[in-house]
């Protein structure tokens, strides 16, 4: 072997050793080509653990059959009830109805240590509901009776018939007291609507107060109090004939 050949061998050996000392890193997303993949998966021989066996349940806090007492604290009535752990609270309420302690299921409210029991829950869902427990029965007040229909109430009203005022059969004798009051009121209205009355009153007030301004104020006060008994047409007539404004102010 020549010197050149030895040199090439040494060079290749040094390159190989330097490459061999470096670790090979493969990126996480690297994938082999389909042609380079093994046709059969490589199965690692790992011993399997034994299948666990089911152990008997040790809960036993709620027996399959329960016996407890339902007590109404208001009436001091109570009843002993036997039921299964898989029964619902609604079944217990039905047993209370059968024992004549309640009228219906909806009227009941069962309490266990102050906590209300729900109808859809099972007996085994409540840890404190064990054999020998006492349930408190609360009864809701009955609902108010339905009100009488309006049509029936209307039928109880007395019948009212209307007749014409000109019908002789409906006329009655006039009351003398009413007639005298109506006559007096008519005289009062006649005097109140007379423009001459207001002119005399204006002159009287001006003479008594000895001041036209004070007399006008007094006349205005009197006219305002009398306007409640006058119609709009009467007020306009007095204002036109006597020379007063609508609110009693003298022109």
UniProtKB/TrEMBL annotation:
Residues 141-185 are annotated as: Disordered. It comes from the Eukaryota. CDD domains: Ubl_ubiquitin_like. PROSITE patterns: UBIQUITIN_2 (PS50053). Residues 66-144 form the Ubiquitin-like domain. Residues 150-172 have a biased composition (Polar residues). SMART domains: UBQ. This is Ubiquitin-like domain-containing protein. It comes from Wallemia mellicola.
